[in-house]
Design goal:
Length: about 425
């Protein structure tokens, strides 16, 4: 039975606003219950509503300029709110929300006057949405900063494209991160990735799909911190005292590193900082790359070389050909995904902890690395500067011998926090 992170209760006249909020929640990796999507023809509405509440971890009710609506709508919404409150003792989180144009709690809800309400106003939508997401996830969902580290917030813009590769939407987002000082002015930025569930792998109908991308399966991933960028040459030099890269530049990602080199980097960085750094599991990597999306790329149905570094002589879907740069590019050059991670498609393939398997039969569903198996090859994810866009899809899987070193392979970090 499908589980939901939040039940969205609202006056039907406010539905356009709630549909947008539901879409934004999905982009953040959450699974909302919305009547428009969950109630089918022939369903008994009241039964479907209370079944949806029973399958949800929390409930948010939204009050807009239309208030609680007419008598019938008022009665229905009030019934849902009371159902929410009755479930609080079972750990069900109740989240009251005021939509733009509403500055005070309705008189009918006087008994909730002392609660803290999330308030959407014109101009604060992103801040209010972040507040709502934190409330839905609860305090236990967000991994805390390591001891002695203060979390900071950064702002960034994400983009979505249509099947032709044209940008159709731009969205301002925020994420939390901390900075690790590696010495000599070199730093490492680690971004907070909230825990959640996602469908790993690609659907049968996805263009360019390989058989090793299935079967699709649901994975629950705990919260973690991940490198904002793939490890740079400056960072590698600061920890390892050398730079094996073919293409030179402090802000370029380090490449020509084996899986064993990457693991050794993690070991030395852990010793230096007192924190446990490692490579991501394959599940963590795909969860972080998708950032709530289900499309082939986190940009949408396709990509262009304005959005990622790959061989632009090749195309995906209806997008045009583009530039072939023939080398890596500085980290942070292209737009990030909605978690605030850069270059999760293209630029360099990235090592993961896992051993390679030909499919997902028997794969872990808890976000951990799949370390069992007779195949010693290690997982590679993300595509690269010299690869076609098909290989840059969020679900694409590749592998190589752990001792191999190529100028299209690098790595990204994850840090564990007790």
């Amino acid at each position: 039975m499908e589980q939901f992170d939040v039940f969205l209760a609202h006056n039907s006249q406010d539905k356009p606003q709630i549909i947008k909020i539901a879409r934004d929640l999905k982009l953040k990796g959450l699974n909302p219950w919305l009547d428009k999507e969950q109630i089918r023809g022939g369903d008994k509405i009241i039964q479907a509503v209370f079944n949806g509440i029973s399958l949800s971890k929390s409930g948010a009710f939204f009050i807009g300029q239309n208030g609680l609506g007419n008598f019938q709508a008022n009665l229905e919404l009030d019934t849902v709110i009371h159902s929410f409150l009755e479930r609080q003792s079972q750990g069900f989180r109740v989240i009251p929300v005021l939509l733009p144009g509403v500055s005070d709690v309705p008189k009918q809800l006087w008994y909730l006057k002392q609660w803290r309400w999330i308030q959407f106003t014109q101009g604060n939508e992103e801040e209010a949405l972040d507040d709502l997401i934190r409330s839905i996830r609860g305090r236990d969902a967000e991994v805390q900063a390591p001891p002695g580290i203060t979390l900071q917030t950064f702002q960034f813009e994400t983009v979505t494209v249509n099947p032709q590769g044209n940008i159709t939407n731009r969205r301002n987002c925020t994420a939390k991160y901390f900075v690790e000082d590696l010495g000599n002015g070199v730093t490492l930025e680690m971004v907070q990735i909230p825990g959640g569930r996602f469908i790993m792998g690609s659907p049968a109908g996805e263009a360019g799909r390989y058989d090793n991308e299935g079967p699709q399966h649901e994975v629950t991933v705990p919260s973690f911190f991940m490198g904002k960028y793939v490890v740079t040459q400056a960072q590698y030099q600061a920890i390892m005292g050398s730079n094996p890269s073919h293409f030179k530049g402090e802000k370029l990602p380090v490449e020509t590193v084996s899986w064993h080199d990457a693991v050794e980097f993690c070991k030395r960085l852990s010793q230096k900082t007192g924190r446990t750094y490692r490579l991501p599991s394959e599940a963590e990597w795909e969860y972080a790359a998708r950032a709530g999306t289900t499309t082939p790329f986190y940009f949408g149905e396709t990509i262009t070389t304005d959005l990622a570094n790959y061989d632009g002589n090749y195309t995906y879907g209806s997008a045009p050909k583009g530039e072939y740069r023939q080398q890596t590019t500085d980290v942070g050059k292209f737009p990030p995904n909605s978690f605030g991670l850069y270059d999760m498609c293209g630029n360099l393939f990235e090592w993961c902890l896992d051993k390679y398997h030909n499919n997902y039969d028997g794969a872990p569903t808890d976000g951990s690395a799949w370390l069992e198996g007779s195949n010693d090859n290690k997982l590679l994810r993300g595509g690269s500067w010299n690869f076609n866009p098909r290989g840059c899809r969020s679900a694409n899987r590749d592998r190589n011998d752990p001792v191999s070193r190529y100028d299209d392979v690098g790595f990204r970090l994850v840090v564990l926090v007790a």
